[in-house]
Amino acid sequence: MARKPNPQAIRERAAKTAQAMGGSGGVAADAPKKKTSLPQFAREVRAEARKITWTSRKETWITSVMVAIMVVIASVFFGIVDFGLRVGVAQILKLANAG
């Protein structure tokens, strides 16, 4: 049989969680921002740019072919749906005009 939750324990856990998250309802308190100089900013940008990994020519080719195949499949699907809806609406309009 399941135990009933203890409301006091739930409140204590919620208070601990709120304190760990910053105390303001889950929103972290705004920390003062450090001012960075332009040369330091440029160094950080270059360091981040060095972490970029580019895809190989083969990976790019395979991805491009897959995208092209999906475009063809989607266009065929929507063409069939469009044709079906066009024929269905035409038949409904024929029935409405005949009556």
UniProtKB/TrEMBL annotation:
Transmembrane stretches, start-end: 60-81
InterPro entries recorded: SecE_bac, SecE_sf, Translocase_SecE/Sec61-g
Recorded topology in the membrane: Single-pass membrane protein
Keyword check for Nucleotide-binding: no
GO molecular function annotations of the record: protein transmembrane transporter activity
Locations listed in the record: Cell membrane; Membrane
Keywords carried by this UniProt record: Cell membrane, Membrane, Protein transport, Translocation, Transmembrane, Transmembrane helix, Transport
Positions of the UniProt region annotated as Disordered: 1-33
Gene Ontology CC: one annotated term: plasma membrane
Database matches in PANTHER family: PROTEIN TRANSLOCASE SUBUNIT SECE (PTHR33910)
Record-stated family: Belongs to the SecE/SEC61-gamma family.
Described purpose of this protein according to its UniProt entry: Essential subunit of the Sec protein translocation channel SecYEG. Clamps together the 2 halves of SecY. May contact the channel plug during translocation.
Protein name: Protein translocase subunit SecE
Record organism: Phenylobacterium kunshanense
